[in-house]
Each structure stands twice: as structure tokens, then as C-alpha cells.
Amino acid sequence: MDVSSIAAAASANASAEVQAEASVRVLKMAMDIQSESAMQLLQAIPAPPAAPVGSTAGGVIDTWV
Length: 65
Known about the structure:
Elements: H1 3-44
């Protein structure tokens, strides 16, 4: 191998590493944005209505047919 091919290979390797690091950063940013959007959607869900006083879920069963 001559010196120029070794230098070209090293340069290509460094370029690939930089590109991979940039891709990972962009992916992390996209995941953060998606996480924030999901949290906003979850916070937008209205609270369930309060149960009437003295009743509990499943406390009244209609047994008449």
C-alpha cells in the first residue's frame, strides 16, 4: 500500500465516524421531540368524571332480568 491510499482510507473512516455521530444526534433529537409530543397528548386527556358519593365501581349490580 502506498501512503496516499492509507491517507484516503483514514480520511474516509473519519468521515464515516462523523456522519454516524451526526445521525445518532439527529435520531436522539427526533426521539426527544416525539417524547415531548406524547407527553402533551397524555396531558390533554381529560380527567375521568368523579364517582357519585357513596358508590364504588362495581358496587351496584342489577340482578333483575
